[in-house]
Amino acid sequence: MEKLRTAVNKIAYTPKSQILSTLSPLHLSLIPLLFLSSSLYKVALSFRHTLHHIGFLRKHRLPVPVISVGNLTWGGNGKTPMVEFITNWLANDIGVLPLILTRLRILDLPLQGYGGADEAKMLQRHFDGKSVKIGVGANRSATAKSFFDRYGFIYPLEIACFKKQIPGVSDKIGVTILDDGMQHISMSRNLEIVMVNALSPWGNCQLLPFGPLREPLTSFSRAHAAIIHHADLVSDGSLSVIKSTILEANQFLPIFLSTMTPTHFFKPPNVSIILPLGAVSQKIVLCVSAIGSPNSLVQRIQKMGPLFVDRLDYSDHHQFQSKDIKVIKARLELLKNKFGSNPAIVVTEKDYDRDSEILGELEPFEVLVLCCKLKILGHNGCTEDEFKKLLIRCLS
Question: Residue 320 belongs to a domain with what CATH number?
Fold first, then answer.
């Protein structure tokens, strides 16, 4: 299955003009099946949207404002870091108690799975001991109802009421945040935020599974804001092309830029063992990741001054197994023999939270988990303050 996903991913991100020169006979043999599946997916997607539009399928409306953070393609768009950014700001700066609704595992298509267990675990670890509520489940309306019944809710008619910390307000849910919510059209939302991966925005512009698009690019017309993620890792020319594509679908859409700022490493299994970013300086490093945008991890590690950086990439949400550990150890031994010293393994928090125990099988090699925080970059008046004003308008 891992090889099949890798093959599908390669096809999805190969430009039409390079299909014959880049893809192998195996890849080319898959294209007719993928094209047919993509066509069927398009029909089903259109039919579903039509049923909601005419009111045959009703939309659930929650008793508090709903902020949706989603994307149009699979993986690597920064949805969960953005959810965490918004949640921290609401809880710590505004005084609103957020409820995050996320999925545990849903299959979009047989060839391209969605596994959100790692992201849910990461959010739960980050907000452990805090007042933030996290609801995990496929039926998000039912999950939300169970939390409202348990903790109560308050609709923020005026944002000022939260700043005054009225007794009885702070322990009630004041806003709901949908993690990966754009395709969850059965729930009404007050704000639709669409994340875009600057490193690989649209691929071949085809729908799943022939391409990476979960919806056509015209769906930007439903959005209230677009965020181009990893914007610091691409050229200004590439950013201009991405912006032009977005504005073709929604010419009035505000476009923000964001990045992941590395903060520190920790050494599993003890997350409290904190190491500075200089821990990889002048070291041999093997980046191992099963995330949507592995290039972003490699580029950020390269900026930290290692002696050499190697990489092993797996498909997004891949569950590491014993056979993978053997492959990783074999690569580590090759690096050790080549450079004469033990290399360090760097993984992301998502990889750690997916299965923290299996990383222990990499001993005696050192494993470092890179921790990052999302940051909004100022650009053409679309600053972090302007983004927060957008959120406040949603609440009020």
Answer: 3.40.50
